[in-house]
Amino acid sequence: MTQRLYGIMAEFRSPEALTDAVKATKRAGFTRLDAFSPFPLSDLAQELGVRTAVIPWIAFMAALVGAGLQYGSQYWMNAVDYPLNVGGRPLDSWPAFIPSTLIVAILWAGAATLIGLLLILRLPRLHHPVFEVHGFERASNDRFFLCILSDDPLFESAATRNFLEGLAPQIVREVPACA
Amino acid sequence: MGSEAQAVTSTVAEVPLSRRFGRIWWIALLASGALVLLLGYTLVSVTILGVGVWGVNIPFVWGFDLINYAWWIGIANGASLFAAILVLRRHDLRTAVNRFAEGVALFAVICAGIFPIFHLGRPWLFYWTFPYPATFEVWPQFRSTLTWDFWAISTHAIVTSLLWYVGLIPDLATLRDRARRKAVKRIYGVFALGWRGSVRDWAYHQRAYRLVAILVLPLILIMQSTVAFEFAVTLVPDWHETRQPLHFVATGLAQGLSIVLLVTVLLRWGLRLERYIDEGDIDLLGKLALASALVSGYLYLDEIVSALLADRSAQEATFNRMTGEYAGLYWTAIVYSILIPQLLWLKAARRSTIAGVFVGFSIGVGIWFDRYSIIVGGLQMDHLPSIWRTYSPTLAETGLFLGTVGLFAALLLLFVRFLPVISMFETRHDEHQEKSS
User: Residue A145 belongs to a domain with what CATH number?
Assistant: First the structure.
């Protein structure tokens, strides 16, 4: 019987071992891989080609939208739609409109960045094939995992397994795909 | 590596996962729960009977409600500012205290938010501050500092809670994976949103978290200044000064730091976290609290100098605050927020739990008296002598204040019970780096 696989996963004891394994895997030509760690590993993320430059852009664009919306609505409401004369001050009292414009820009930037983060990471996703792997719960504690995904062009269950065994992991396990 | 990381995770994670939590926690929770009931009672009474149950009257339209609002928001802003600076500087102290500095900020902003809403008199209409298409076809008056405050409080509450939660997700995943009981696993699992700890996810997570921490910095400065503007834009002689924002920002930071110090030493002692919050961390916090108290002291001096340079009515109003009917408030503020923190010059005091609790509490109390002195003492000598009266809080107001203290304590106790008070992943990261360097 052949079970459809999500990938094959190797477990390591230290971030250094994981980093070496990722380097070796990339040298071998694999492109579809994922690494799991109990804390952020920025060097390894670079190695895997993760580009996070979109985050500041999300914040910046959201801040512009928020600021524009807030300033625009203050101007439109207090100067155009319902002109409000307070002690003879100009209708478009821009200095008084600035504080809440800045605050709302920050609101938009902060909320968009953090909610955008969840969208990028495709969370919440309560179930995932990797959770089926025995021992994977230690990925949030003290173990490091490398997974070669089955949609990699070079993936071939037995050969890939042998390759991972060659990287001196603690153990290698298959990750069954979700039914 | 394996065993080290394991040790960190287990001590911190065992706290929320343990079945029993000791008697002191229960007693503290019951006591704060009783105060929360008192809060409910005072809120219901002010809603049904109206603000007449408070001691406020012309000219004291801002009594305990604004004093406590300004005080809580100062704690929230000070704690947030401190947390943001630690993240930005990538300071080691961040690992130890960031999580609950953000927690303190979040709980304080919740307490702060109660006051302006109930101060409206008809709290159920608070949404009138929001520009929605009302049937009257009028809009809020955006030149008013009070509308700025509406945006500031709601932004602070939304951004801080999101930041706090997003920072918690990886640690919730650790709790999910370590929980022994299925129900507990499920609950943490749902809140962990299925975090897998992929290196790619970590990279995005860290970038977004740091970026929003940077955003919090200007937010806090604008927000604390907005609180000060509420006083500065009025024509009340003692309030109408450009120095107010600086005074509020500086004393607010002192307040935030003092409460963080207080909570840190208590948690360190109560949860036996000496290994994660080491002597150096406590020492540094003590030094920061001392420095911020000195800055507050400088601003109190500045207040006197500004008064000397001001016109006569402003001068009289300010000096009346120091020598008149409410002089006690002013001098209590000086003693508690400036003089007592000088204890922290001693290394032994900075490292002692009792001294930490005492000084942290004392600065908090001192700034509370400063707010009282500004809001009530400052109003006493307005331009019009016919309205020179005095103000004292009624039971309904005192109960409301004690109630928010109870709410703050209860939220903090629940946080300590059910969530990791120290960022476990940051600690793992730090310990790993220490080991490899």
Answer: 3.30.70
Give residue B10's pLDDT band: very low, low, confident or very high (50, 70, 90).
low
- Contact state of A109 with B208 under an 8 Å Cβ cutoff: no
pLDDT value of residue A101? 95
**Is the peptide bond preceding residue B16 cis, with omega within 30 degrees of 0?**
no
Q: Which residues of B touch A113 (CB under 8 A)?
A: 208, 211-212, 215
Q: How confident is the model at residue B56 (pLDDT cuts 50, 70, 90)?
A: confident
Q: Are residues A44 and A65 in the same domain?
A: no
Global pTM value: 0.91
Is the domain of A115 the same as that of A82?
yes
CB distance from A156 to chain B under 8 Å? no
- Interchain CB distance below 8 Å, A140 and B207: no
Render pLDDT for B137-178 as a digit per residue (tens, 0 to 9): 888 889 888 889 899 999 999 999 999 999 999 999 999 998
Domain extent, residue A168, equals: 5-51+131-176
Structural domain contains residue A29: yes
pLDDT of residue B91: 75
In order of B185, B213, B339, the CA distances from B366 in angstroms are 44, 29, 10
At B212, the amino acid letter reads V
Number of domains in chain A: 2
Residue B12 has pLDDT above 80, yes or no: no
Looking at CA atoms only, how far is residue B320 from chain A in angstroms? 30
Kindly report whether the peptide bond that precedes residue B59 is cis, defined as omega within 30 degrees of 0: yes
Please say whether the beta carbons of B226 and B96 come within 8 A. no
Co-location of A46 and A99 in the same domain: no
Q: Are residues A26 and A9 in the same domain?
A: yes
**Residue A126 lies inside a defined structural domain of this protein:** no
Q: Look at residue B9 in the predicted model and tell me its pLDDT.
A: 64
Does a structural domain hold residue A125?
A: no
Going along chain B from its start, the domains and CATH numbers come out as 56-392 (1.20.1630.10)
Interchain CB distance below 8 Å, A140 and B139 = no
Q: Same domain, yes or no, for A22 and A67?
A: no
**Cα B305 → chain centroid:** 29
Region B314-343: mean pLDDT is 93
Amino acid at residue number B41: Y
Instruction: DSSP for B124-153, please give it.
Output: GGGGGGS----TT-----TTSHHHHHHHHH
Q: Output the CA–CA distances (angstroms, integers) from residue A48 to A41, A52, A62, B130, B352, in the order listed.
A: 11, 12, 28, 46, 47
Same domain for A113 and A65, yes or no, is yes
Residue with more model confidence, B246 or B21: B246
Does position B24 have pLDDT exceeding 50, yes or no? yes
Same-domain status, A70 and A105: yes
| Chain B residues touching residue A78 (CB < 8 angstroms) | 139, 141-143
Q: Among B5, B138, B147, whose Cβ lies nearest the Cβ of A100?
A: B147
Q: Are residues A116 and A135 in the same domain?
A: no
- A-B CB pairs within 8 A amount to 207
Closest residue, chain A, to B165 (C-alpha): A114
CA neighbours closer than 13 Å in the CB half-sphere of residue B350: 19
Beta carbons of B40 and B89 less than 8 angstroms apart:
no
Question: Which parts of chain A have pLDDT scores under 50?
Answer: 1
pLDDT for residue B100: 85
